[in-house]
Every structure is written in C-alpha cells, then in structure tokens.
Amino acid sequence: MDALSGDGAGLAAVRLGPPSRRLWAAEGPRAVFGLVELGWRWRELAHLPRGDGRPVLILPGLFNTDRSTIVLRRSLQALGYHAEGWGLGRNLGARSTGAELERLLARVAAMAEDAGEPVTLIGISLGGIMARLAAHRAPTKVREVITIASPFAGDPRDTNVWRAFEWATGERVGDPFLAARSAEGMRPLPVPSTAIWSATDGLVNGNICRIEGERCIEVRSSHLWVQHRVSVLTAVAEVLASAR
Q: What is the domain-level CATH number for residue 97?
C-alpha cells in the first residue's frame, strides 16, 4: 500500500473513462478470491493496532444493507472500536428529496450524542460519497471520514455502474441536483479524511476515488466485496490507530 497527497484541486476536471472490460469481467472471480484469502488470513487481523472505543459508523455501498459490512464491523469490534451499521436499510443514495441524507445526519447526531464525541464515518463506494456529504453538513458531529472505493472525485460515467445507479436511485447523470451534490462531495473535507482505492477496480475508475490534498492509500482489489479484503481491513485499522 502507498499513500499519496498533494496540493492540487483534484482529479474531477478530466474525464478518465470507466475501467476496462478485462477488469470488469474479472470482478466476480477476484471477489471470490478475496473471500478465500480472508478465510485463511483472518487470524492475522487480531494483530492489528488495538482500538480506543471510539464510535464508528459504517455505510454500505449501492444496493447493499448492513449485512454487507458485517466483516468490517466485527473486525473493528474485535479490535476495541464501537462499530455499528448505519441502520437505514438498503442504500439507494441521497435522492433529490434529501430525506435519505437527513436520516443519515440524524443517525450520526444520535450516535455522537450517545458516545459523547464525534463519530468516525467509514463508507464503501456510494456509502463513502454519503459519508463525505454528512461530514460537510455536520462537521462537529464527525471526527474523520474513511472512504473505500468511493467514486466521489469524478464523473459518474467514469464507472461501469452508472446506469445501474440511475435505475436504483431514480437520479439521472447530468441532473443539476446530482451535479451540485457531486461538487459538494468532492470539496476538501473540514475533517481528516482517507481514501482507500484500487487501480485494478473493475467497476469504478480508481482515480476518481481520491483527490490530491487528502490522504489516500492504494490497495490491489476488485470493487465487489472490497470491504472484505485483508489489505483494506488492515488499512482501516492502521488509519484509525494513527488518528488518536
């Protein structure tokens, strides 16, 4: 893994195109391999830096529920963090009504109040975009943001899933509301942030999952089940440990 940072405005101004068909076709087999790897390397996770009990809220990706984040949550709980799922059902995005984002902001506020401290947000794919929006709108309630394979820094058409996104959310690429929300999400955050991304992602162009000026960590992974990869679980634990 390696980290990159810089002083530029980001990568959003240039259309980079979606991942190749070769990477897209390899998503399924590589995702299965990630699960197999997790099975035989699971014990290694017990040796990661210990947590300090801070509240961590994990947001699932498009179409997914909290079931998709069980491995990540259990890994962080075993290390000593108070990790919870977002509890808002299936993630279909922050639609134009704004109701979904308001529900997320209420969830973050309630968790922060219960814990007596700001909440760390970890978002997978679309969940990471929503985590960034929440941090912009409630910076006093959010301690830091970690995104995992989240295409927040570019055009939605630089992915192989933008049509599925339109179908699931009812939003349309190019809609003024979506463009404004995307611009908000890619602005530098008022809290510490880390973007975990992969150049071999088959569903979203890895280069739109990070911006210069914010910490980023490269891993080698598919997009599907990226949150189950040992390298990702390790990166998350190390980022949390470094933010004490």
A: 3.40.50.1820
